[in-house]
Specification:
Elements lengths: L6 H30 L1 H5 L2 E5 L5 E7 L6 E5 L10 H7 L4 E5 L17 H15 L4 E6 L1 H12 L4 E7 L18 H8 L2 H9 L4 H5 L5 H11 L4 H9 L7 H4 L6 E6 L7 H11 L3 E6 L6 H4 L1 H12 L1
Parallel strand pairs: 3-4, 3-5, 5-6, 6-7, 7-8
Antiparallel strand pairs: 1-2, 2-4
Helix pairs in contact: 4-5, 6-10, 7-9
């Protein structure tokens, strides 16, 4: 008599071994990029300890007496995101790129308020310790929202803003809190190398992907630092979210602002940039980068630099 094949058990075992293999491959790949991407940790690296719990990692170059250009990254980003823009302007500016608390190589305290306003207050502490003034501020995505708060808190410190695919525009009544996931999801899924890489490429347009303007190596440089964020801190980012209608803050900002937006930004659409332009008023202009996604400084560097140089001239 033939034994009945237990297909349920076979399928379960198959899925188990696939899952174990998938996470093992992720771990091996992570170990590899840690060994081969040490230059990401080391490039222009400095640290500033604000207190016992908060140490800001930052990158700094250029003449200390030159005009100051300060870079603020977006969510799951770091100071290294701007490395090519940073290196371009180090010959004419005193360039500084910070890792926000909780991100990159800065400290990640459990009892810190990770809301954008408090992040701005911490950046302001950094600015004051470094005695920076007349700052040209370049920020990306979530960093744009931090920068709006920073400019509102210390308008005398900021001379002009360049905001790339900026967060910060939320219409009245908009849902701004992301869903809170179980902690294991942040550890086993969000931080997985291959899952994060798949998500990373959605930040770029179809044109950028199809024409090889972004590669796995670009992702590795980002992942090698954002993998250092503990799962409970990733969860806390959403719980400490303080995004809201920002119009009262927009109304206080009189500095010249350039909004740079990818034509096919799938994270914060160009239409949002157009609404943000209307909210900010006559001191603001919007520049669209054709065929670009959420990070046009990665993929359309020369055109991006042309627009920046025209604005700061």
């Amino acid at each position: 008599m033939k034994k009945k094949i237990k297909w349920g058990r076979i399928i379960a075992l198959t899925l188990y071994f696939i899952t174990v293999g998938f996470w093992t491959a992720s771990g091996l790949k992570t170990s590899e990029i840690i060994q081969t991407r040490q230059y990401v940790y080391e490039a222009y690296a400095k640290e500033l300890q604000l207190d016992e719990e908060r140490t800001i990692f930052y990158r700094e170059a250029g003449d200390a007496n030159a005009p100051v250009m300060l870079f603020v990254h977006g969510f799951l980003g770091s100071s290294y995101d701007f490395i090519h823009v940073f290196e371009y302007f180090k010959t004419t500016h005193h360039v500084i790129a910070v890792d926000l608390i909780g991100f990159g190589l800065s400290s990640k305290p459990r009892d810190y308020d990770y809301g954008k306003e408090n992040q701005a207050r911490t950046v302001l502490e950094f600015i004051e310790v470094k005695q920076l003034n007349d700052i040209t501020l370049m920020a990306h995505s979530m960093g744009g929202e931090v920068s709006f708060h920073l400019t509102h808190l210390a308008p005398e410190k900021i001379s002009q803003l360049m905001l790339v695919g900026s967060a910060g525009y939320y219409p009245e009544g908009a849902m701004t809190n992301p869903p809170s996931l179980p902690l294991f999801m942040y550890k086993e899924v969000v931080q997985n190398y291959y899952i994060q890489r798949a998500f990373f490429f959605t930040a770029y347009s179809e044109y950028e992907r199809n024409n090889g303007l972004i590669t796995n190596e670009d992702f590795d440089e980002m992942y090698v630092v954002n993998r250092t964020i503990p799962p409970d801190i990733l969860k806390q980012f959403g719980e400490d979210n303080d995004s809201q209608n920002m119009q009262e803050i927009f109304d206080t900002i009189t500095q010249p602002i350039m909004l740079l937006w990818g034509e096919f930004d799938g994270f914060i659409p160009l239409a949002t940039g157009e609404l943000l332009l209307q909210s900010l008023g006559d001191n603001t202009r919007l520049v669209m980068i054709p065929n670009a996604g959420h990070l046009p400084f990665d993929t359309f560097f020369d055109l991006f630099i042309d627009h920046v140089e025209e604005f700061i001239a």
